Amino acid sequence: MISLLDFPYNLIEALDEQAIMAQNLADLLLTEETEKPKTETPQEK
Questions:
Q1: What does the radius of gyration of the chain's CA atoms come to, in whole angstroms?
Q2: Vertex 26, ends 37 and 6: CA angle to 5°?
Q3: E-assigned strands of 1-45?
């Protein structure tokens, strides 16, 4: 198993930054998706 200590710190920081950016993008897309007016609501019977 590879220890995180084996990685240079700046690489870990760059990966962390990518993860944060990806999370922000996902949040943005989810927010846009939920804010859209629901055109197709399933009819409950």
A1: 19
A2: 175
A3: none
Phi, psi of 5 (to 5 degrees): -65, -20
Identify whether the C-beta of residue 33 lies closer than 8 Å to the C-beta of residue 41: no
What pLDDT does residue 39 have?
A: 66
pLDDT tens per residue, range 1-45: 667 677 788 888 888 999 999 999 999 999 988 876 666 666 665
Rounded to whole angstroms, how far apart are CA atoms 8 and 12?
7
Amino acid letter at 42?
Answer: P
CA distance 10 to 2: 17
Q: How far apart are CA 2 and CA 21, in angstroms?
A: 25
